[in-house]
Amino acid sequence: MSRRPYIGRFAPSPSGPLHQGSLVAALASYLDARAHGGQWLLRMEDLDTPRVVPGAADRICQQLQGFGLHWDGPILVQSARNAVYREAFDRLTHAGHIYGCGCTRKEIADSVLRRDGRLPDGEIPYPGTCAQGLPPGRHARAWRVRVPPGVIHFEDRWVGPQQQDVAADVGDFVLLRADGLWAYQLAVVVDDAAQHVTDVVRGADLLASTPRQRVLQRLLGLPEPRMMHVPVVTNADGQKLSKQTGATALDPARALDGLREAGHHLELGDIVRTEVAGWLTEATRVWAARWVDGA
Ligand code: GLU
Question: Fewer CB in a 10 Å sphere around the end CB: N or C, the chain?
Answer without folding.
Answer: N
